[in-house]
Amino acid sequence: MSSFVPTRPETLEDQRLYTEARLVEVACLDCTATVGVKKNSEHHTSVQWSSAALRACPELCGHDPSAGRRDVHRACPRLMASIDAAVRAGDVPVGAHDGY
Length: 100
Hints:
The chain is of the alpha+beta class and 100 residues long.
């Protein structure tokens, strides 16, 4: 349950920019799960998972739902390698623009 639900247009736009702006679709080179990726710096990577991507990823789809929500800090090493390859190829730009 959310403790804060934004309603002001400016806050909603900030939320949209933070979660969606500059996302680049990257497909895992192993399982083809496709996620949205943004790199604000060399060390900062945001990954937005869709339900379809979670179901497609063998690393994450094996999570037992009775154990609670999946660990949001857990990453799939094969997907992270695919993201690194996309960054090296220039498909994912690095660096924040206008704070996002």
